[in-house]
Amino acid sequence: MAKRTRERGFPADPEPLPVPVVDNHTHLDHIGAVLAQAAPDGEPTDQAWPPTVTDHLARAARAGVDRVVQVGCDLPSARWTVDLLTSLSASTQQARVVGALAIHPNEATLHAGVLEVGPDGLAPEVEEHHAVSLDDAIAEIADLAKGDRGIRAIGETGMDLFRTGPRGEQAQRASFRAHIALAKELGLALQIHDRDAHAQVIEVLLADGAPERTVFHCFSGDAEMARVCAENGWYLSFAGPVTFKANQYLRDALSAAPRELILLETDAPYLTPHPFRGQPNAPFAAAHTVRAMAAHLEEDLGTLCTDITANSERVYGNW
Ligand SMILES: [Zn+2]
Hints:
The protein contains twelve helices and eight strands. The protein has helices spanning 2-8, 28-38, 53-63, 75-87, 105-111, 134-145, 166-186, 198-208, 223-232, 248-256, 286-297, 301-316; strands spanning 21-26, 65-72, 96-101, 151-160, 189-195, 214-216, 235-238, 262-264. It has an eight-stranded parallel beta sheet with strand order 1-2-3-4-5-6-7-8. Zinc ion binds at residues 25, 27, 71, 156, 267.
């Protein structure tokens, strides 16, 4: 029983990194929702359950993940993100936070009223906030992203042809284009969600002109696509899947990517790195992923962390 409880909780604490690194894509608000399903059966563990956002930021800092980008990619989550940024006080004991905001491609379809089942076969889940039109939803993102609230990127936006069909694709493309324009207007970085949509996403970026700092969140292409990103100066952000045994193509992409374009993320609570797949993810676990990346690249861990941190600051500024 005790073992089962541990497996349903978070991964083991990594050995602290020799040099701090940045988790440039995480969903602190979703971690709680996933834990509601993963919580041990009413059994108290040796730590308070579930951990708070502050606990996660402290655990990240202890692991050497000293900064994170919190991504709010639907209306409730975007509002939550701005509230978090205004309520956090600076502490050396906690990872520091900036934000990214957008209407996620799978949210864009729902705001556009497209209720279509995609290749994943799952029925769309409509919620109250989807009554807001797509235009109004993006306008609210624009308002929240303005001013000095710590929003450094527009994202995640892009296309997801796993979750939607042809009508959804149209809505996603329109939403993606509006977000690209917004990132350029506000001078912010762009974080892209690209699921089974490499060609479409690249086509839109080239047609409209990508923002100066464009990041493929959870990069899912191969070495050839890494070269396309390199030619255009687009960043490749690697998450847990680069550590999965079956994903040699991602490690090939990592090898092909110019060092100055490589970023690191958790996408927590999703995409937990090997060997902790199936457990909930949290920002501290980026330390596991970057260790695996350094081992694959046969690079000194501290050097890789230094490079990733410098790249993150180039994209999001300092914080
Ligand atoms: Zn995400």
